[in-house]
Amino acid sequence: MGCGVCGAGPAAPVTVRGHQGMIVIMRSLKRQGVFCRSCALSVFREMQAETLITGWWGLLSVVITPVVLLTNLGALSGIKRIPAPVTPGWRPPLDPGKPVFQRPEGVAVLIPLGLLGMVVTLVTALLLGLFPGLSDTRPNLTTGSCARNDGSWTEPDLKTVPCDSDEAQYRVMFPGDHGCEDGDYLASPYDSADGIGRCLRPIR
Ligand SMILES: [Zn+2]
């Protein structure tokens, strides 16, 4: 069985997929055939490089493209197991060219991916900054519960503890009309789910 492109052998059945996103519509590409190692590598690299550039441009395509790229990596490991051609074909095999990441397409795709990574990092940092509750290190102080402070009062590390435990240092009180009483500490509004800063009354 010779290569379907050049006739050289040995050759093996190979399937390489591609994807093109076009905002709303998209197109799936597939090249299937019996290829020698050189021709298969050439088909793989061409398809992979093209998908890296044209794949991402659509809502579904963003999800489909990495799947296609990964599936092709599976095909590549099969391609690499085809021995180099020994019986010549009727024409020279396709030139495999450079590996994908040594091509302009492979380098170009790192730019949008890098930008995407930066945007995700920025948005995450912004959300955590705007809504400290999301970082989930805040206690949820509720009236009547007990708390302790393992930090200082300039940099508190409050957590809720059972009132009957030795760890309890403060009872959490709802602020009165005039705020907290003398001797109380005022907890940050962020330390309560309802956003109302509670008074921390030392337990004696
Ligand atoms: Zn071939």
UniProtKB/TrEMBL annotation:
The lineage of its organism: Bacteria, Bacillati, Actinomycetota, Actinomycetes, Kitasatosporales. The keyword Membrane applies. Keywords: Membrane, Transmembrane, Transmembrane helix. It comes from the Bacteria. The chain crosses the membrane at residues 56-76, 107-131. The keyword Transmembrane applies. This is Uncharacterized protein.
